[in-house]
Design goal:
With about 180 residues, this protein is of the alpha+beta class. The protein has one domain. About 30% of the residues lie in helices and about 30% in strands. It is rod-shaped and about 95 Å long. The N and C termini lie far apart (about 90 Å).
């Protein structure tokens, strides 16, 4: 084998390795984008499932006369229940606040606002009365529509930038 044969083999090997590396790098980027999308969807589903369950159960308690929703704002909701049937809703866990703080959806049940989902871009609430008309009067609320938009929590790359997931549901209050 001569020197020029060896140089040609090295050049061809270099081109093959460069092409292989490019394909591998693109595959890793695509995987990262898919994982970011899946993470956003999972966070949105988990947060929405928990909030939906709490909305359905809001207002429970045999002696409760308080409305199931104490505060009905477009980006914040305060749910009220009389869990121990003592006629009041002042004990820990009986007033639950859901709100978006920065990009973190937080739930406060009396022990401080705990994070539920990171990377939340929008948290929108719409309230409806028994006839299905929009309302903001807490005693009249019978259903709540929740829209949650999540994105990548941290470390956005070029492929994951702008990746978002919007999940919407309408929940009927059981106890009103």
């Amino acid at each position: 084998m001569l020197l020029h044969d060896l140089l040609a083999a090295c050049a061809i090997s270099g081109c093959v390795l460069a092409a292989t590396y490019t394909i591998l790098e693109q595959g890793l980027r695509t995987h990262a984008a898919g994982m970011a999308r899946a993470e956003g969807q999972q966070a949105a589903r988990a947060a929405l499932a928990r909030l939906s369950a709490e909305l359905r159960n809001a207002g429970r308690g045999a002696k409760s006369t308080a409305p199931a929703i104490a505060v009905a704002e477009p980006a914040r909701v305060v749910l009220v229940s009389d869990l121990d049937n003592d006629g009041t809703t002042t004990d820990r866990g009986e007033r639950i606040t859901w709100q978006l703080v920065g990009s973190i959806l937080r739930r406060n049940a009396g022990a401080g606002a705990q994070p539920v989902a990171n990377g939340v871009r929008a948290f929108e609430l719409q309230y409806f009365d028994a006839a299905g008309r929009p309302t903001s009067d807490p005693p009249a609320i019978r259903a709540v529509e929740v829209a949650l938009v999540t994105g990548v929590a941290a470390g956005e790359s070029g492929l994951t930038r702008g990746t978002s997931t919007r999940i919407t549901t309408r929940v009927r209050l059981r106890n009103r």
